[in-house]
Amino acid sequence: MRSLLRHEIAGVSVADLAREFGTPTYVYDAERIAGQVAALSEFDVIRYAQKANSNLAVVDWVRRQGALVDAVSAGEILRALAAGYAPRAAEGEAPPIVYTADVFDRDALDLVVQHGIAVNCGSPDMIVQYAERVSGGDVTLRVNPGFGHGHSRKTNTGGEHSKHGIWFEELADAARLAEQHGLVVGGLHLHIGSGADLEHLALVAGAAEKLAREVGPSIHTISAGGGLPVPYREGDPSLDAAAYFAHWDAARKRLEAEFGHPVRLEIEPGRFLVAEAGVLLCEVRAVKKVGARTFALVDAGFNTLARPVMYGAYHPMSLAPGDDEPRPESEIVVGGPLCESGDIFTQEEGGVVRTQRLPEPRVGDHLLIECAGAYGFVMASNYNAKPLPAEVFVVDGKAHLARARQSLEAIFADEKIPV
User: How far is CA 346 from CA 79, 335, 403, in A?
Assistant: First the structure.
């Protein structure tokens, strides 16, 4: 059973981290990220979905492990370039950066054209808008296969309720539209949701194979998308990477035999690479009884980590006590400092408050919210005029400041009072 007491993160003392960087602070373990990249090494291309965690230190580290990158906005294109990715591929190589979206905002389209960034189109309008600015070339199409799955309705990206991708029944029309505008459909990308299980993920391989046949031999790349499972709770299944690869490799080989040329097999993990590598380090600032329940209130809130309030997401937690006295365990509600009733880290989807078993907390102890490396800082806000937290990247047991804590004055530095 996992210990509920923890005194280090990636080999660095919790007390030292809190002393040097303050709280709340995100701490990322570089070695854990490298291990997750290596677990997917059978795929031809691992393309990091940086929306999960786009800190430059993380994106650069993923690049150094040999992974390519996905961008979903103009800002993410610039982040990828700043982290060392080349905008264009060498002849015959996979593009280092792919812009994937269902819409081009004007800034993103300008950057795509300026830098020659490859695109993965999720709507027919994207095809037309791209063709109006670029003369010829390949595009990839993101396809909604008609079904989806995920740990929450909000993370399910397939089926009729989802805005994502070109509807599978419209794929032939989209391919003709691309051809009419001088573009070649060179790849297909399918993604059904984050937190899908292997059974549902395997269905995507069959759908991709069928859809690739509809487009024909212009296809040279198929992408398995992301959504790989992360074990947040004890007993949650981990990814059987070899079995998952085998599903896609079999589909790929059948397509290669039919098309008469190699087909590149990509995978696009985000959460899978970084979730378990991240810990949100906070300080307990108050402990109080509310009826029969004990609340531990920390200096991080849903402005710091939004997943529980958005999805009812579960995060394992542990305590780093400020002393060596034995601590009995009890059921604790963990909340933050915001003037908002929903500012609770221990809640189910729909806002139902639950408890988490922890050693009894005291003011000054440090609480560690674990598996917080994905969709943590990237979804943080200044709600209640709270500053954005610091981010720390640990390599070989040494902690490096990857983002300074936002100052209070910086929160409103860009605001103006009209004369």
Answer: 33, 7, 27
CB-CB contact of 72 with 99 (8 Å) = yes
Type of residue found at 24: P
| Lowest mean per-residue pLDDT among 88-97, 185-194, 295-304, 356-365 | 185-194
Token pair listed for 210: 């069928």
Q: Residue 266: which of 212, 228, 225, 229 has the closest Cα? A: 225
The answer on pLDDT for 150 being more than 50 is no
For the stretch 82-102, pLDDT in tens is 999 999 999 889 999 999 999
CA separation for the pair 372, 367 (Å, rounded): 13
Q: What is the dihedral of CA 304, 47, 224, 108, to 10 degrees?
A: 70
Per-residue pLDDT at 317 exceeds 60 = yes
Show the tokens assigned to 256. 């290669």
Map tokens 């650069």 to a residue. Answer: 60
Q: Which residues are catalytic?
A: 339
| Three-state helix/strand/coil letters over 126-179 | HHHHHHHHCCCCEEEEEEECCCCCCCCHHHECCCCCCCCCEEHHHHHHHHHHHH
